[in-house]
Specification:
single chain; mainly beta; Porin; 67% strand; disordered N terminus
Length: 202
């Protein structure tokens, strides 16, 4: 009898940990963050060609992430991340949106309130300049972060994510003299982002 009571007393500290353990569940997470500048090289064609840097300005972002359980530590992840930026060489070209729509996998560890994770995804980036037609480009991301649960159903998600966008884009413009020229990029665009989100889990 004494041994049974002793065993129960020793197991009491484990009860709170078990109560806060988070099984892999369906999660939807609205997010907000900031995406950093990204730079590519481009070629201006006036008859004679010359190269110049083309910068996509950093901007605030918002979006939503949906995580669907596949195994205890593995989730299928659907990601939409939207922003409003601008292409800016020596003179400003104008506003543009660069939105990402991705599908990937997330692996997390930890069975308590705090769950670190890393994730990767592939999909498309939709480039929508205000001065030209929108285009879809191949894109991918890598991410790392942590999920912190306050209750069984509510938590926060803190994340850093790197974005790659394949750019092979031509933009026709008219200069101040009325001459038409074409600006062409044929590189990848790399950007980093920090974000936070509210996890709703069930």
């Amino acid at each position: 009898m004494k041994r049974t009571v002793l065993a129960l007393l020793l197991s009491l500290p484990l009860v709170p940990a078990a109560a806060t353990a988070q099984p892999n569940r369906f999660e939807i997470t609205p997010t907000a963050g900031y995406r950093l500048d990204g730079t590519v090289s481009s070629t201006d064609r006036f008859g004679d060609s010359f190269r110049t840097d083309l910068r996509f300005d950093g901007s605030g972002t918002y979006g939503v992430t949906v995580d669907i359980p596949l195994a205890y530590s593995l989730q299928l992840e659907l990601l939409a991340s939207l922003d409003g930026g601008s292409f800016a060489p020596k003179q400003r070209l104008g506003d543009a949106d660069l939105d990402f729509y991705q599908i990937g996998l997330l692996y997390q560890w930890g069975r308590g309130q705090v769950n670190p994770y890393f994730a990767g995804s592939l999909g498309v980036a939709r480039l929508q300049p205000k001065f030209a037609a929108s285009e879809d480009r191949f894109a991918g991301t890598l991410a790392g972060g942590v999920k912190i649960f306050f209750t069984r159903n509510v938590g926060v998600r803190l994340e850093v994510r790197g974005y790659y966008t394949s750019l092979d884009t031509s933009i026709d413009e008219v200069d101040s003299h009325g001459d038409r020229f074409r600006r062409r990029t044929n590189q990848g665009l790399y950007q980093g982002e920090g974000s936070a989100g509210l996890i709703l889990s069930w």
